[in-house]
Amino acid sequence: MKDKNIFSSLQMTALVILRFLIGWHLLYEGFSKLLIPNWSSLSFLQESKWILSGFSNWIITHDSVLSAVDLLNTWGLIAIGLALILGLFTKLASICGAVLLFIYYLNNPPLIGLEYTLPSEGSYLIVSKTLIEVGALIVLAVFPSGLFFGLDMLIKKHRNYINNLEE
After folding, report:
1. Does the N-terminal or the C-terminal CB of the chain have fewer CB atoms within 10 Å?
2. pLDDT, tens digit (0-9, with 9 covering 90-100), for 9-42
């Protein structure tokens, strides 16, 4: 959207707050994994029981691949969370976050007949907080909240300034 004024200040403020809250959640999840000695996604991947279970089993049978997945997961969460909080590359961060969380969902969805040994936070059927967060990230990807408040706005202003100087 080229004209950020087509949305009310209240609408954009609500989207910025949503962006910040999800960014905080992802950043915290990434840092918590970074700070836990020997953290690994092994137990999560062992629980995979749906369409990604074969891929998850392949990952856990290759130590180097598991280490790479752990590294990418941790730093991906940190990068996506920071980008969302700062409003930097907001659309890309939202899409990457939605894809990452959807991968989590596809590994361990709350479907009838699937039982997990790890404790869950609640009782879900098909729709979980992970899937809701995927939906919220998709919403953030299609609205320009970074252009309303964030570093994306400053980058756009700088580009406009440079373009005006060139004209």
Report:
1. C
2. 898 889 999 999 999 999 999 999 999 988 998 9
Collapse the DSSP code of 14 into the 3-class scheme (helix H, G, I; strand E, B; otherwise coil) and give the result: helix
CA distance 10 to 145: 12
- Output the six-digit token pair for 137: 């990230």
Q: Answer whether 0.85 is exceeded by the pTM.
A: no
d(CA 78, CA 61): 26
Rounded to whole angstroms, the Cα distance separating 86 from 54 reads 36
Phi, psi of 127 (to 5 degrees): -95, 120
How many whole angstroms separate alpha carbon 86 and alpha carbon 20?
A: 8
Nearest to 85 by CA among 44, 42, 26: 26
What would the pLDDT profile of 99-148 be if each residue is shown by its tens digit? 999 998 888 877 555 565 555 666 667 778 889 999 999 999 998 888 78
C-alpha distances in angstroms, 38 versus 1, 33, 61?
Answer: 44, 9, 17
Alpha-carbon distances of 6 from 9, 17, 130, 159, rounded to whole Å? 9, 18, 30, 21
The pair of structure tokens assigned to 96 is: 């990457």
